[in-house]
Design goal:
The structure holds 2 protein chains of 2 kinds.
Chain A lengths: L7 E2 L2 E2 H36 L3 H5 L4 H27 L2 H31 L8 H32 L9 H26 L2 H7 L1
Antiparallel strand pairs in A: 1-2
Chain B lengths: L2 H9 L5 H22 L4 H24 L7 H27 L25
The chains are: A mainly alpha, B mainly alpha.
Amino acid sequence: MSYGGAATVAGYSIPEKHHRAKFGMWLFLTSEIMFFTGFIGAYIALYNSSPTAGKDACELNWVIALINTIVLITSSLTMARAVAASKRGDAPSVQLHLVLTMLLAFTFMGIKAYEYGSKFAHGYTPSYSPFFSAYYLLTGFHGLHVLGGIVVMWHLLAFSFAGKYTKEYNIPMEVTGLYWHFVDIVWIFLFPMLYLLSPIQAAVGH
Amino acid sequence: MSEHAEAHAEHAEHDHRPAYWMVFGALLVGTAITVGAAQVDMGRAGNITVGVIIGCIKACLVGWIFMHLKDDTKVFTLIALLPIILFFVMIFLLLPDVGLSEVSPLDVPKEQGGMYVPPAPPVHH
């Protein structure tokens, strides 16, 4: 069913509904920030109490993580453009940018899978050290958020092809955009925290 | 319709595309600076501080422009700020444990009453 011509959705005007949906998403993101805060706190405590953490961090490949950072930043741009297109009622542009965002998300996950595979092959499993335990915890939950985003974007894409979003009604696009940018922000902090502090300093020291 | 909802409808028509490209470029430059700064030995605290500051600037750009905090009601900004403040409070509460204690029990071998167990060497194929 298209909401394009409807004056109300579930008893609210569309702009009012839009505002409430965004309010709800921001509250959800608040809980997400606290979710990752706990893990980051655990990482800081484990890193600083483990004598091998610096050496373990040197085993991570920061160049691969840099590529993944660029991939995720680009996906944030394509998502922002998809949301902007939905506000203009430009369905083909919405679909193009959603597909691009999903491709970039799959690329991110593919690179992450390669990285996990190479670490496991060398024996760096979650039980190897406190650093790797925290590393898999943080990147694993971040990866699950990326996967969740892909599932939601898949639905958005199907709904867009079905003509359910219009210039007036694009609430799901906007709140998914908020979620996806949050996933990007989490990675913005995880990248230097996990990959850059020890390896490059070790390289400089040599 | 509330004031906020009206404000949203008004802003929905804005063309944000140039701003999006500028933020994208700034995020790439910020990433390059993050990598570059990590190669300069500023001491552990210095490198962490620079990394956090650049990360915060990048996160603010994403929040302000990509997530439309610039145009939306400031209630959303306040909602976002609350957990961020709590995040920094929690990190500062951790500092006495991670920064001020010179010897961690994990640094002391088990034979000497500590908790340190050397990890098994990784398997190289």
